[in-house]
Amino acid sequence: MQTLINPHILALTPYQSARKIGGNGTIWLNANEYPLSPNELLTQLNLDNLNRYPEPQPQSVISAYANYAKVNANQILITRGGDEGIELIIRAFCDNDDSVLYCPPTYGMYKVSSDTLNINSKTVPLTAEFQLNLKEIEKNLEKVKVIFVCSPNNPTGNLLNKDDIIQLLDMTKNKAVVVVDEAYIDFCLDKSLANELTNFDNLIIIRTLSKAFALASIRCGFVLANDWIIQSLQKIIAPYPIPTPCALIAESALSNTGIQTMQDKVAITLNNKSWLENELNNLQIVQKIYPSCANFILVAFKDGQAVFDTLWEQGIIARNQNTALNLANCIRISIGTQDENLALINALKKF
């Protein structure tokens, strides 16, 4: 019976999500989540219509997010997290002979989604400074329809140079779409490329409520693009992608009060990150702390595997990047509560 399954699916290596990897943790610093649940968003949910199918694209959420992102409502598609946006874009633009290009080390779902859809993927590694290698990208554009870049980049945490992304958009005009994954942009919102949508037909932006808005469990993401792209993606998205409770929570999070609450949490996260960076800098086992504009930091240790294993045994679960391209001995650490960050530092001081 296994012969009935597509061969490329049998050979597929699935994405190793933080929850799938598991562990018996008490302190979870491996998924770049906000460490506390925003339960205040649950107090005024009207769930009287759970017997009805949800609105396919809840207009109240679209309007609220358009106001937040400073784009037009017809430039937004709501998706089940940013991951669905990645897959929809590949499905919409790529045929059997086409390719996707991405720049490691970066988010693993660009490759997994391409492999799942049996679309060839090309890689052009980031430079030693974790920036785009435009010369090499230009050499590898044959048959490329979709280019994924992540800014701030996961797992390195840095912003890509805006001028490089603009140059990439110019380079690929009428040839390919450039997808800028802005999952972490709410931690540095003034660096978003959303205002460039009016200048580039081939620009697509992916956003999410999973990070700064602390709503990873409701799986609510957004694709921002010009209306001709949004109309095409609407043809292939599932009929009812956003459950009514999720839409109601998203709407509440995008209210004026909800956005202010998110911004307050961002400020707390960034303050906690600064504290954690300072403490890590004082540890002899740390070789380098990479600059980050997100809610996590990438740290190079003298022996990253030993550090990761020891933390794991103590119930402190971080994200091991040791096998990622050019990230030997590196661990990605999400910013937790101050108590969690202190527990991490105390554990590292025992090395």
Automatic annotation (TrEMBL):
<dbReference type="GO" id="GO:0000105">
    <property type="term" value="P:L-histidine biosynthetic process"/>
</dbReference>
<dbReference type="GO" id="GO:0004400">
    <property type="term" value="F:histidinol-phosphate transaminase activity"/>
</dbReference>
<comment type="pathway">
    <text>Amino-acid biosynthesis; L-histidine biosynthesis; L-histidine from 5-phospho-alpha-D-ribose 1-diphosphate: step 7/9.</text>
</comment>
<comment type="similarity">
    <text>Belongs to the class-II pyridoxal-phosphate-dependent aminotransferase family. Histidinol-phosphate aminotransferase subfamily.</text>
</comment>
<feature type="modified residue" description="N6-(pyridoxal phosphate)lysine">
    <location>
        <position position="211"/>
    </location>
</feature>
<dbReference type="InterPro" id="IPR015421">
    <property type="entry name" value="PyrdxlP-dep_Trfase_major"/>
</dbReference>
<keyword id="KW-0808">Transferase</keyword>
<protein>
    <recommendedName>
        <fullName>Histidinol-phosphate aminotransferase</fullName>
        <ecNumber>2.6.1.9</ecNumber>
    </recommendedName>
</protein>
<keyword id="KW-0032">Aminotransferase</keyword>
<feature type="domain" description="Aminotransferase class I/classII large">
    <location>
        <begin position="27"/>
        <end position="347"/>
    </location>
</feature>
<dbReference type="InterPro" id="IPR001917">
    <property type="entry name" value="Aminotrans_II_pyridoxalP_BS"/>
</dbReference>
<dbReference type="InterPro" id="IPR005861">
    <property type="entry name" value="HisP_aminotrans"/>
</dbReference>
<keyword id="KW-0663">Pyridoxal phosphate</keyword>
<dbReference type="GO" id="GO:0030170">
    <property type="term" value="F:pyridoxal phosphate binding"/>
</dbReference>
<comment type="subunit">
    <text>Homodimer.</text>
</comment>
<keyword id="KW-0028">Amino-acid biosynthesis</keyword>
<dbReference type="InterPro" id="IPR015424">
    <property type="entry name" value="PyrdxlP-dep_Trfase"/>
</dbReference>
<dbReference type="InterPro" id="IPR004839">
    <property type="entry name" value="Aminotransferase_I/II_large"/>
</dbReference>
<dbReference type="InterPro" id="IPR015422">
    <property type="entry name" value="PyrdxlP-dep_Trfase_small"/>
</dbReference>
<keyword id="KW-0368">Histidine biosynthesis</keyword>
<dbReference type="Pfam" id="PF00155">
    <property type="entry name" value="Aminotran_1_2"/>
</dbReference>
